[in-house]
Write a structure and sequence with these properties.
Helix content is about 25%, strand content about 40%. The chain contains four helices and 15 strands.
């Protein structure tokens, strides 16, 4: 996965969540206590659909994913900083990263649950939230394509220097995650290593319901 992240800025995890776990996470959406806020995307020009940010303490499975994925991804992130010639380094543990965020006033949790219905979509964007940004994040698909919904492809668009942007469709299955660059990644070019900017989004859902768990490792202001 680290090699795939280096090569293209995203990588699939393979199956991680069982269908039962997916259903349990998706079933949280109508409830109030696990969440701190709800966003209706059309009100802000983000697209169509809704999402809710989890409150602390996070649900157990969300916390396990966040804390378990962070350490190996911190190794990838720090290798990226080396390649880009930056002095920034990221702590080895999630607790260390969150301490850095909270000291800077970024104290609101960012893991979120998104839900889309027919005609809904998510515009291309980056999940930054503040000064301290961990350069990788994850999204897990909770419904099965072709069975539960049609359309709704996860899309990553990469800006390439002196070239047109390139779009990639990520083939997610239920319970599978994609790990991808939040904002930028290092890439080899004819003049050495350069930065490539990435944005991500979701194409229009043609039918059914599509739900996703987003795992972001830095907190928000």
């Amino acid at each position: 996965m680290a090699a795939e992240l280096d090569a293209r800025g995203w990588a699939l995890t393979g199956p991680v969540l069982t269908p039962e776990t997916c259903a349990r996470i998706a079933g949280l959406y109508p409830q109030e206590p696990p969440f701190r806020s709800r966003v209706v995307m059309a009100r802000h020009g983000f697209g169509r659909g809704e999402y809710k940010y989890f409150a602390y303490p996070l649900p157990e499975v969300v916390q396990k994913l966040r804390a378990g994925l962070y350490p190996p991804l911190a190794g990838v992130a720090n290798a990226w900083m080396d390649r880009l010639g930056e002095e920034r380094r990221f702590p080895e543990t999630l607790d260390g990263m969150l301490e850095r965020c909270h000291a800077a006033g970024q104290a609101r949790p960012t893991p979120l649950l998104l839900t889309y219905g027919p005609g809904d979509y998510n515009c291309l964007h980056q999940d930054l939230y503040g000064e301290h940004v961990f350069p990788l994040q994850a999204a897990f698909l909770l419904d099965q394509p072709s069975r539960d919904f049609e359309g709704g492809e996860f899309v990553i668009v990469e800006q390439r220097p002196r070239q047109q942007s390139a779009a990639q469709v990520v083939p997610l299955a239920q319970g599978e995650g994609v790990i991808f660059a939040v904002r930028e990644r290092p890439a080899e070019g004819t003049r050495g290593v350069h930065r490539r900017m990435l944005r991500h989004g979701v194409s229009e859902v043609r039918s059914g319901t599509r739900r996703t768990l987003g795992v972001i490792f830095h907190d928000a202001t």
